[in-house]
Amino acid sequence: MENELWKRLYQIVRKADKNKRPQRATYTDANIVLTYFWAVLHDRPIYWACNKKNWPVYLRRQKLPWPSTMTRRLRTERVQTLMKYIEHSIHAEVFPTLCKWIDAKPLPIGRHTKDKNAGFGSAAGLMAAGYKLHVIADSRQGFVAWVVRPMNESEPKVAIELVSKLNDPGYLIGDRAYDSNKLYDLCASRDVQLVTFQHRKNAQGFGHRRHSEYRMRAMHLKDTNFGRALLNSREQIERMFGRLTSFCCGLSPLPNWVRTLHRVEMWIMAKMIFYQIWSKELAPSAA
Description:
Layout: H1 2-17, H2 29-41, H3 46-49, H4 67-74, H5 77-92, E1 99-109, E2 119-123, E3 126-138, E4 142-150, H6 155-163, E5 170-174, H7 181-189, E6 192-196, H8 213-221, H9 225-232, H10 235-246, H11 261-282
Parallel strand pairs: 1-5, 5-6
Antiparallel strand pairs: 1-3, 2-3, 3-4
Helix pairs in contact: 1-2, 1-11, 2-5, 5-11
């Protein structure tokens, strides 16, 4: 399975990069990206992928960059743009559906970490240090929008950033943490109707203040068969999280060498790209 994933990724990267190389640089952007993806594919640090002994015999003729070169080039705007372009190009090959889901997945690390970017907050009912992966998912396109934030940042706050990336009308399903007037209005401005489960436990009814008309519409919608079907479909995002973490090179707990926000973001982006390729072309349901 890893070989099929690598071959498909290699074709996508070469097609996107076209051997572009910065001035006075020895390696193209594609060389840097492919070396990094080789490390992520095998859940190994960057210096491991810079050693020819860790590549198949038929790929050992290529000249590999030094770990220091990898660290410097991976931070550049050119390489970051190339990785984002690769991810978006895979999404663009599939038409979106009418219904999307929003949720967050905790990525805990050790409590005694020295990572200054990590936060301490709620993680599935427990308190933990680390990060959270906030996503909007589509059954066809996969994870269409995502961001990584410290564990202590709330879902409604991060959801505002995610919803701003939506371009297709439809319905967005979330749990009661996303039951926010501001979020309902923002979704409506993107031609999206937010539908959540019952309002938060600490909410005492609706009170006497003004509420978003789209929040009230969602409350009435939940009393219909269509609305209940939308809410029942939310279990799909849990299945997608399960598939993301269980396929051949899925998103396992963050390894010790993936710390600070920019490294976590790059690691997850690579895992997301592998997941998109696997789910679209190599998963049993795609056959």
